[in-house]
Amino acid sequence: MTFFERVYEIVKTIPYGKVTSYGMVAFLAGNKRMARQVGWALHVNPLPDEVPCYRVVFKDGTLSPAFAFGGENAQRALLEKEGIKFDKKGRVKPCFFV
Fold it and tell me: Residue 54: which of 24, 83, 11 has the closest Cα?
């Protein structure tokens, strides 16, 4: 299994209404130093209906400013639809991380 394939399998396991960080996905995929590659893997995700890329955020809870799946505010809208709450600075609240 390639690194990208491992990333997709891990992201598929993020529960509805929860998020995780690029770094955590990299760690679980076998190399904690490959958070940027996780981002690239999600950017070229061949199965967007099966792999919920929008559930992966930066470790401080901020969202990608250039979310590739519908524009800058699309990621936040998808997360809010799942009940995820944000603080006053626009970061995902820590209680929503797995």
Answer: 11
Instruction: Let me know how long the chain is.
Output: 98
pLDDT mean for each 10 residues of the chain (98 residues): 97 98 98 96 93 96 78 89 97 98
Q: Return the closest-CA partner of residue 14 out of 82, 89, 90, 93.
A: 82
Which residues touch 1 (CB under 8 Å, ≥6 apart)?
9
Known catalytic residue: 95?
no
The catalytic position among 53, 56, 63, 92 is 53
First to last CA, the chain: 24
* Pair 86, 76: CB distance under 8 Å: yes
Strands 56-57 and 20-21: parallel
